[in-house]
Amino acid sequence: MRRLPKRRTELGRVDTMSDHFSGPRAIAGPAGDICDFYVFPSPSRPGWIVLVMTVHPNAKPDTAFSDAITFRFRMRPVTIPGEVTHLAVGTEAEEIAFDLSFAPPAPGDDSAMGQIGRCVAISGEPVAVTVNDPSGAHTDALSVYAGLRSDPFFIDLPALQRSMMSGQLAFSYPGTNSLMGADVLGIVVEADYAPLLTGGHGPVFAVAAETVVSGPLPIRLERTGRPEVKNVMLSPKAYDSVNSDIELRDLYNLEDPFHMGKDYRAAYRTRLNANLPVFDSLDGKVDWPTTEDGVHPLTELILGDYLVIDISKPYTDNSFFEIEQSMLAGHPHATCGGRSLNDDVMDKIYTLLITAGQGPPISDGVRAATTPAGTDFPYLAPANQPPAGQ
Asked: What's the DSSP call for residue 104?
């Protein structure tokens, strides 16, 4: 049985949230910084799937989408094997992608309203969308929205920081949403999922979001699957005795979500094997015993960093990580999985990492975003009004 880590105040602080500011490069280049990523069956259009990417933390009314970046959703079919440490993801030939790119804003436009985006979907036929048009753009098989919206993420970041620095849970009730009133640039793609099931694929898919440099040299700027893998699980360095002076997040962002390279894989594993037991210890007990070699039971599953969704099951607000947890427990999943806009993923992450789902849920006391998302396209809540006097 592993001993609990010694509590110490030099434990690496968690200074960011969800996927906002997930590394030095994201901080330096917010235009390509993915804040969050969501995928869920449409609650209002049966037979359709919704993909949402938010970018550019703390966006303003004059913030435009970069014309040098491609914003990409990627999907591959998944099978759930008997081996519980990983999912079997389909090949590159089976991949389905939705690419969005943007022209520069119209000259003299200080609201980005005149900016035009283009979505290339499964059929390859582009769909044009005007940024900040609340109705978006629609075809028989696709709906697209792009524009300034209220940030749907919610977290009590200072309470998490206090927990990490003290080595024990420091949440209060109610908590305070650190993103109250914040806006982001939102991209929403709603697609008929019948074409996704051709060739016997599905209904379970692995899905990830990326920002990539547009043009002939498509360098990956950032990739995002599950929330808080980079900023909570990989960010703290103090317990990683092998890589304690290395910022891993920029390297991790360069990795293909479905095919991690071998060069830094050991470094990511070492960091997770060092950090995950620290989260487990925050309630003063061990719920995830490691192996004699110090391997944490969740490390390999977390390194398969993508959302997993079963599009044959109906929408629910409360299904994040359910497919993976069912796999770990050895029984069939019951929900669509994925991640909805209103799902309280922080409470689920805390409960998973700290208690392994044994006993009462762990909560930071924050229950909803500034304005909860809606059930109809484009789902994301409208941008927040600036405070009086600004």
From this structure: P
The predicted pLDDT at position 110 comes to: 55
Please tell me the distance from the alpha carbon of residue 272 to that of residue 263, in angstroms, as a whole number.
16
Q: Rounded distance, CA 41 to CA 25, Å?
A: 32
Environment class of residue 175 by beta-carbon count within 10 Å: exposed (0-12), middle (13-18) or buried (19+)?
buried
268-303 pLDDT, tens digit per residue, is: 999 999 999 999 999 999 999 999 999 999 999 999
**Among 186, 207, 210, which residue's Cα sits nearest to residue 338?**
207
What whole-number distance in Å separates Cα of residue 147 and Cα of residue 90?
Answer: 32
Buried b / exposed e over 257-295, threshold 16 CB at 10 Å, is bbeeeeebeebbbbbbbbbbbbbbbbeeeebbebeeeee
- With CA atoms as reference, report the closest residue to 256 among 299, 212, 300, 215: 212
Rounded Cα distance, 329 and 243, in Å: 32
Report how far residue 153's alpha carbon sits from residue 90's, in angstroms, rounded to the nearest whole number: 30
| Alpha helix positions (H), the chain | 24-28, 157-166, 249-254, 265-280, 299-303, 322-329, 345-355
Exposure on the CB side of residue 90, measured as CA atoms within 13 A: 20
Give dist(CA 15, CA 306) in Å, integer. 23
Q: Cα–chain-centroid distance for residue 359?
A: 26
pTM above 0.85, yes or no: yes
Residue closest to 283 by CA, chosen among 349, 232, 348, 354? 354
Strands (DSSP E) along 68-163, which ranges?
Answer: 69-79, 88-89, 96-102, 116-120, 126-130, 137-138, 142-150
Residues 119-143, mean pLDDT to the nearest whole number: 91
Delimit the domains of the chain by residue range.
Answer: 24-355
> What is the SS3 assignment for 150-181?
ECCCCCCHHHHHHHHHHCCCCCCCCCCCCCCC
Q: Which whole-number Å values give the CA distances from 288 to 219, 285, 295, in the listed order?
A: 37, 9, 10
SS3 259: strand
Calpha distance 288→276 (Å, rounded):
9
Q: What is the pLDDT of residue 83?
A: 58
Instruction: Tell me: pLDDT of 43 over 70.
Output: yes
